[in-house]
Design goal:
It is a single chain. With about 300 residues, this protein is α+β, with helices and mostly antiparallel strands. It has one domain: DD-peptidase/beta-lactamase superfamily (Beta-lactamase). The chain is about 40% helix and about 15% strand. The strands form two sheets. Strands 2-1-7-6-5 form a five-stranded antiparallel beta sheet, sandwiched between helices. A two-stranded antiparallel sheet has the order 3-4. The N terminus and C terminus are likely disordered. It comes from Rhodococcus maanshanensis. InterPro entries: Beta-lactam/transpept-like (IPR012338).
Length: about 300
């Protein structure tokens, strides 16, 4: 498809944002998985003192501890990119199946490979990439995963972004990630340190900011960090959900604030899981649980958390 007209793949509320992005110029068992266990809550946050930084990491740790007491496995990571702050709880010890968060890597890898070969991106393919981010369409993910060589997609992205705890699997949804690595990915995407060109980053950001309340498969995406990032303004989100063993996966991630200042990641394997995909789609209770956990971890005003140091 030529020109900047809206692709047939881009529909509804997503269309306006995607059309603008396309015109931006992209020429050239009892555990959720084997070995899982509830992680120690006090894992990787760093603080200089007990000043303004103090209450926030305590709240993160408490939220993760309480979730563990209820049988849930949760990792939370927070980045203030302007103040160079990183905080986390349960963020490094446990690897979670990424579910649809892998679509971040699939889209990133496709855009990076096209730029590396100085090949103009087909408009229809580009619309599919960004729609995959916004509506979490599985069909687009399957196509690009296959075209990119399957697990090699994750391996290339992990190398570019220095995601040391991220590993590929045969199925894209089984990619293993930690909350800290997902936060590192967002920070690298937004800053450009992951190697994407500015136009490619604009495409990624546009797709994430166009995330729809209802996904392509009918799932309600408004859970987890959605409301928090919306309050900060300009949110971009990528959610993930599935069942594995006796666990219900609810991942909620994204960025918000002026100049995409804040990154917030919640990875959750909730107990008990739903017995089937159909039941999972109808399981609003698990999504509400994920939302309650992350809201318990956050202070009323995120912007007051600026006395901590260093990103992961």
């Amino acid at each position: 498809m030529s020109g900047c007209s809206r692709s047939g793949l881009v529909r509804g509320a997503v269309g306006g944002v995607l059309a603008a992005a396309i015109c931006a110029g992209l020429t050239p068992g009892e555990t959720a998985a084997p070995g899982w266990s509830a992680a120690p809550a006090h894992s990787a946050f760093k603080a200089e003192d007990d000043g303004p930084c103090g209450p926030f990491p305590d709240a993160l740790a408490t939220a993760v501890e309480r979730a563990a007491a209820d049988g849930d496995i949760v990792g939370i990571a927070f980045v203030d990119r302007e103040a160079d702050v990183y905080l986390g709880a349960g963020d490094t010890e446990v690897s979670f199946p990424a579910a649809s968060l892998t679509k971040l890597f699939i889209a990133d890898d496709y855009l990076h490979r096209r730029a590396a070969t100085a090949t103009a991106i087909d408009r229809e393919m580009l619309a599919g990439v960004v729609s995959m981010l916004a509506t979490s369409d599985d069909g687009g993910a399957e196509l690009l995963w296959t075209l990119g060589g399957g697990p090699a997609v994750v391996e290339r992205v992990a190398e570019r972004y220095a995601l040391s705890a991220t590993s590929a699997a045969d199925a894209w949804w089984d990619t293993a990630v930690t909350a800290a690595d997902v936060a590192r990915y967002y920070d690298g995407l937004l800053s450009g340190r992951g190697g994407l060109s500015a136009p490619a980053r604009q495409i990624m950001i546009a797709g994430l900011q166009a995330t729809t309340p209802v996904a392509a498969d009918g799932f309600d995406q408004d859970f987890g960090v959605w409301a928090t990032l919306e309050r900060l303004g300009g949110p971009g989100l990528k959610q993930g959900w599935m069942t594995t063993g006796d666990r219900t996966i609810r991942h909620s991630t994204g960025f918000g604030g002026r100049d995409h200042r804040y990154v917030l990641v919640e990875l959750a394997a909730l107990d008990p899981g739903s017995p089937s995909v159909a039941d999972d789609i109808a399981n609003a209770g698990a999504s509400a649980r994920a939302t309650a956990i992350v809201e318990a971890a956050l202070p009323a005003r995120i912007a007051e958390t600026a006395a901590c140091v260093s990103t992961p």
